[in-house]
Amino acid sequence: MLARKPSLNTEIRWHAFLLNPDMPLEGADYDSYVYEKFGDKLRSREINNAIYLAGHTVGIDFDFTRVKRLPNSVDSHRLVRFATRKNRAAEMLEMLYQNHFIIGRDISNRAILIDIANDLGFDEIELREYLYSEEDIVDIYEQNSKSHRHGIRGVPTFIFAKQFAISGAQDPAVLQRMLSIAEETQHEFDETDTQLIQRIN
Questions:
Q1: C-alpha angle with apex 19: 98 to 37, nearest 5 degrees?
Q2: What is the pTM of this model?
Q3: Beta carbons within 10 angstroms of residue 155's beta carbon
């Protein structure tokens, strides 16, 4: 999609958002959580089936039957931060999604997170020191609070040019339109900036 906008100056930034900020560090039993949230398994099956069908249309085979634990995602967000500093955030996110939603691994388990990072070739000693420290934990919670204050209530949420936001699974055509709006905004900013420089000179 971005390849269709070669003139657009883009940078993808991933922000932490916690759907369950009060989740215990060890996560929760998936079936028990579903029962508490929806009252029965039927509603959960309906939601999961809708997600499966949506994913299947784009080649993603979600398998919620393998998910036994609902994770606390703080350490997963930290792992993305760790990868971001090495310009590999997208790879890490893809691995986290695959391991949780397709394979069913518990991504609140630090040993599993280290194993996932090892598969991508990250240094295990450096990663272990990071995950077993408190680095970035406060920042993750602060960023989550900021997102909620800005009215974000779910994922995915896409923010364009720091001004325009849209939430939920979207048709590619919608996202393409948002990129066009962001591109127009960028051009307007560049023109205004040029005029300002000319006036100063």
A1: 100
A2: 0.78
A3: 14
Query: What is the per-residue pLDDT for 129?
Result: 97
Region 65-69: mean pLDDT is 92
Q: How many residues does the chain have?
A: 201
N-to-C CA span, the chain: 39
Mean pLDDT, rounded, for 5-31? 82
Q: At 63, phi and psi to the nearest 5?
A: -135, 85
Angle between helical axes of 74-84 and 124-131 (0-180°, round to 10) = 130
Look at the alpha carbons of 76, 74, 56, 40 in this order and tell me if their dihedral is positive or negative: positive
Residue 4's pLDDT band (cuts 50, 70, 90):
low
Tell me the CATH number for domain 18-145. Answer: 3.40.30.10
Domain boundaries, the chain: 18-145
How far, in Å, CA of 93 to CA of 11, rounded?
A: 16
